[in-house]
Design goal:
80 residues, mainly alpha, 71% helix
């Protein structure tokens, strides 16, 4: 897999159908360059770092939602 293909796959995994828009939209964390621009100028690691961070936030949010659902089910006397 080429570096760009890896980034596109990661973006799609993290952002779903919003990946293409994100990749082509200037981002403040990249000095108002788009992630696509960074990929063409050697900034792959920066783009990958941000996507990995977003993925971690998404995972943490999913864990919180699961824990909240488990707690709610236990309070209602049900099993999760």
């Amino acid at each position: 897999m080429t570096p760009s293909a890896h980034i596109f796959a990661l973006a799609h995994n993290v952002l779903g159908n919003k990946a293409q828009t994100w990749l082509h939209t200037p981002q403040e964390q990249f000095g108002w360059a788009s992630p696509q621009e960074l990929l063409s100028t050697g900034g792959k690691r920066n783009v990958e770092r941000v996507l990995n961070h977003l993925q971690g936030l998404s995972t943490a949010a999913a864990v919180k939602r699961t824990q909240a659902a488990q707690e709610a089910a236990q309070e209602q006397g049900g099993l999760f």
